[in-house]
Amino acid sequence: MARLEDLVHGRSPLTGQHIHRIQELVADWQLLADLSFADLVLWVPLRKDFKSWPTGYVAVAHIRPTTAATIFSHDVIGDEIEWGSKPLIDQALSHGEIIRDSEPELDGEIMIKVETVPVIFESQVIAVISRHRSAESMRTPSRLELNYREIAHKLYAMVCEATFPYPGAHEYLDPAPRVGDGLIRLDVNGVTSFASPNARSAYNRLGWDNDLEGFNLGEISEKLNKNNHDADDHGLRSRLSGKNLQRAECENDGGTIDLIVLPLLAKGDRIGAIVLIQNVTELRRRERVIVTKDVTIKEIHHRVKNNLQTVSALLRLQARRIEDPSASAALDEAVRRIASIALVHETLSTSSEASVAFDQVLDSLITHALDLSPRMSELKITRTGEISSLDPRIATPLALVITELIHNALEHGLATKGSGLHITINRSSKDCVIEVSDDGVGLPSDFDFNTSSNLGLQIVRTLTENELKGSIELKSTQNSTVAKLTFPL
Taking the alpha carbons of 139, 145, 151, 157 in that order, is the dihedral positive or negative? Predict the structure, then answer.
């Protein structure tokens, strides 16, 4: 579908501000189509400047009503018409006024009534709305249809007066309830003059047994609102007075309804308001379930972290009681590995995201490794690059792998020679490459990574291949040893 800017580029004097205004109108005009039971087409005049007579128009937007059958079987966006072929559009553009008193015309087998509305912005007619509806459906309108159409006429007048769409409306109308979900009309004092059947049903479910008409909607809503105690709430009575564009919720044990208040203006004066209503009971229930699940998951991670720390403490106690140095060292290594896993769970327990901020974990692993090294004051570990967020299923084995690589370098490579260890990270959209290099003694000449009996390296190889689905290689030169880990994201 062609963009509005492309349709008018080089053929219209519309500025960026004009185009933005049209886009704001198109974002909110489903309300206009539904209230008037009509298809709406937006036409932009084709001309050199605002003083020139247009050669024609191009259709830049088209919306169908959800409250009635559409008139058009296909979209008309991109269609062009010549000046004079649609006199009603020409009149709206020339006079800057709504053209309503037109006779229905036969279009195929249907009598269509067309009305046109100038879109005015900064005292200029920048576009024209043509409204198309079936003349047959207008003969015996119900009270609901009469109210909807009367409200639509007032909103179209606001378009002509440049007061609709409302400034900043996207903050209140996203997501926007549909007219069919429920509509209430207020007079200038906030008293209900009309309520659609769905609107009455919504308030009935909240416990209001009387009719809404003749009652102040704000007072009713304040009485019914029991569970929603927002610290920023200035009172439903004030919010539902109809004086300003507002969004509010009314909630009690019977359910939750979302209300959007749209003031109606005429020549700058407030003449009433409409309130769009949507029953969001099930939506709020699901949101609460999600929040509860998130809190539960975080609590689980917190308890897992605490349990792992308890296990570490028990192993440290046991290591102190063992006289065999090799057995004590094995328990210390187990403590270190458990601590790596605990760091991941600690990060998840405090994060607002479902992923792990792994750079934070990596910094903690580096600090922990230095604290455990007997040469802590001499050693220096640096890092280049960032990993950013990772899925917990990747973060846990990766933390263990990096812990083993750092510990292996500190224990063997830097034990007697060298003082520097550097971690280099290169992450792309597809994979991540991590290199852990040191300036120590290097690997033995007969070293074979695949057959090494070193438990730490066996853990690295197993986790890399089975959990990370990646690969690892160790390379040694006269001045350094590099462990290169590659895994897909």
Answer: negative
Q: What distance, in Å, lies between the first and last C-alpha atoms of the chain?
A: 35
Mean pLDDT of 120-138: 89
For 296-326, letters b (16+ CB in 10 Å) and e give: eebeebeebbeebeebbeebeeebeeeeeee
Task: Count the alpha carbons within 13 Å of 186 in the hemisphere toward its beta carbon.
Answer: 29
Lowest mean pLDDT among 137-146, 167-176, 187-196, 210-219: 167-176
Instruction: Tell me the pLDDT band of 41, cut-offs 50, 70 and 90.
Output: very high
Q: Which residue has the tokens 């308030």?
A: 203
Give 10's contacts (C-beta < 8 A, 6+ positions apart): none
Helix (H) or strand (E) holding 278: strand 269-279
- CATH code for the domain of 81: 3.30.450.280
Structural domain ending residue among the three candidates 261, 279, 297: 279
Same domain, 34 and 53: yes
Residue with tokens 């600690």: 346
